[in-house]
Amino acid sequence: MLTYQTDPRELAGKRVLVTGGSEGIGGAIVQRLSDAGAIVAATARRTPASTSAAVFVAADVSTAEGVSRVVSEIQERLGGVDIIVSNVGGASAPAGGFAVLGDDEWQRALDTNLLAAVRFDRALLPGMLKQKSGAIVHVTSIQRRLPLFESTIAYAAAKAALSNYSKALSKEVGPKGVRVNAVAPGMIETDATRRMVQRLAEQHGKDEKAAREGLMKSLGGIPIGRPGRPEEVAELVGFLVSPRAASIHGAEIVIDGGTIPTV
Q1: Distance between CA atoms of residues 71 and 17, nearest Å
Q2: What is the total count of domains within the chain?
Q3: At how many degrees (to 10) do helices 208-218 and 191-204 cross?
Q4: What pLDDT digit, counting tens, does each position of 150-204 carry?
């Protein structure tokens, strides 16, 4: 695991929500922001065995009811937030392209990868606007520019919508004191990535090494020679929500080891 020098006072007292905060990128973000002095509320479907979050709410935030439950807990425990990191996301659709995706698969992808962020913003952003300060980071994906049709076509479309929404929101709330940015990871070495590799291996009758190489090849390769690490994404998020990034607004920053081959 990578470690970084973190100023324990940089986000002192800041109230933060991190969705999808139990493992992988989300878990690393929770740790990074906690190390910077933030009071972190995290949510995921399952409570992790250990977490540095001050508040953890187990909920399915792909549903309006799950979002409402988390918001109620945050309002009661923290009185609102200063920072939102909408990290929750993922693809669970079967391989096979567009023909195997029914309405339920499309709706699941949209609920998880787009509407969860929209609902949290709608519920918590008014408080940030009232205090005329705050920061939001939406975690998108390079697949919004480099979609993979085999098993993540709905996921890619939903992340593209999240990127568009993020830009539109930045134009609206930037003049009112709230910064909005997006982070677009490429292939990151997480448990979810490993599960995807296993799923692809089973579906195509390959071993995991071949499935992993096939996934990297489908992306066009990774010039730095490896997937990214959750801690690297968390470090970028930590910077974007800090005062050091005060003039970065309305941007989508790619962290993919050079995977996207175009400017």
Answers
A1: 9
A2: 1
A3: 110
A4: 768 999 999 999 999 999 999 999 999 999 999 999 999 988 788 878 888 888 8
The type of residue at 87 is N
Range of the domain at 137: 15-188+228-255
How far is CA 17 from each of CA 1, 66, 146, rounded to the nearest angstrom?
23, 14, 29
pLDDT in tens, 115-143: 999 999 999 999 999 999 999 999 999 99
Cα(171)–Cα(249) distance, rounded to whole angstroms? 9
Which domain CATH number covers 71? 3.40.50.720
Assigned domain for 111 exists: yes
* Residue 260 belongs to some domain of the structure: no
Q: Which residues are catalytic?
A: 155
Is residue 5 a part of any domain in this protein?
no
Q: What are phi and psi of 55, to 5 degrees?
A: -135, 130
pLDDT digits (tens, 9 = 90+) for 204-214: 888 888 888 88
Stated pTM of the model = 0.92
The closest of 87, 86, 78 to 38, measured between CA atoms, is: 78
